[in-house]
Specification:
With 286 residues, the chain is α/β, with parallel strands linked by helices. It has one domain: 3-Layer(aba) Sandwich (Rossmann fold). The protein is 42% helix and 23% strand. The chain is globular and about 55 Å long.
Length: 286
């Protein structure tokens, strides 16, 4: 891959998630929650939150996982959802109030540098929220300090982009028609930063975790009921949106045409369903 899913610094990530990306995630919250429903269930099963526990939800977004965790730990438990996106946290707080979950709070903060009380949490959980750190060891050490000595973590992250149809198919279609972008190294922050198991294990071990398990989690997601719905969704969201950003009007038209043709065989099957290739990771404080 030649940089189509490029790296952003921590500050750039914060700006990105407080701008167009955050607004888009808010607008697409229900679709994304439905797409990730099976992933969320698998994460909760692995995390195994217990009644009365204190949980830290990293990259909580619009609050779906935080609410599910709060329902699991019950009225004597607490959940703190962390995210850098003010637009998504606004939705999360509203949803928390509507659910009348008094033990649920949200904080706008970068988990890599957030000031968290040491030894507070029983569980660190995250659904696709931990792959964007500029220095993941520093970030995970900060989070590990917030865990109790008996603390544990569970998170879901993406496997290699080539194993994820939702990225591979549109990217390979669009890439020849848009301006080249800076190369993305495997260790750069981004959705696929933890694609390699060896690197993932090394980061967690260096951060003070052991009993590390990494297992594949496969699923599928609906990216459009029709061809045009799929084209509009994928072109306005995620890596394709970024690829189209610097494109000229002519380049964009060609890229959109190529994307439409790449999606056509999937739409012919009734809807656009793509495979989701993920890692489900668990560990304990060493």
């Amino acid at each position: 891959m030649t940089g189509t899913i490029h790296s952003l610094s921590n500050q750039d990530q914060i700006a990105y998630w407080n701008g167009e990306a955050g607004a888009r995630w808010v607008a697409e919250q229900e679709r994304l929650d439905a797409m990730m429903a099976a992933t969320t269930i698998a994460l909760l099963d692995a995390a195994d939150p217990q009644a009365g526990e204190h949980v830290l939800d990293v990259g909580c977004g619009c609050g779906t996982t935080s609410i599910a965790l709060m329902e699991s730990v019950g009225p004597n438990g607490k959940v703190l959802g962390l995210d850098v996106s003010a637009p998504m946290l606004e939705v999360a707080r509203r949803r928390g109030r509507e659910a009348d979950l008094s033990g649920l709070t949200f904080q706008e903060a970068d988990a890599a540098t957030a000031s968290l009380s040491p030894g507070t949490f029983d569980l660190l959980s995250s659904r696709f929220g931990v792959m964007f750190f500029a220095d993941p060891v520093v970030a995970f050490r900060n989070l590990r300090r917030a865990l109790k000595p008996s603390g544990r973590l569970a998170f879901v992250c993406w496997r290699d982009w080539r194993q994820n149809e939702w990225v591979r198919v549109p990217v390979m279609a669009v890439q020849p028609h848009v301006p080249p972008q800076p190369p993305l190294a495997p260790e750069d922050p981004g959705p696929f930063a933890f694609a390699r198991i060896a690197r993932l294990r090394t980061i967690l071990a260096a951060s003070g975790f052991d009993a590390i398990t990494v297992r594949p989690l496969n699923g599928s997601g609906l990216f459009g009921e029709t061809l045009e719905e799929g084209v509009q969704y994928l072109s306005g969201f995620g890596p394709i949106s970024r690829m189209l950003g610097p494109a000229s009007e002519l380049e964009r038209a060609r890229a959109m045409s190529a994307l439409r043709e790449a999606l056509r065989p999937f739409a012919a099957q009734g809807s656009i369903m793509f495979g989701l290739a993920q890692w489900l990771v668990t560990a304990r404080v060493a």
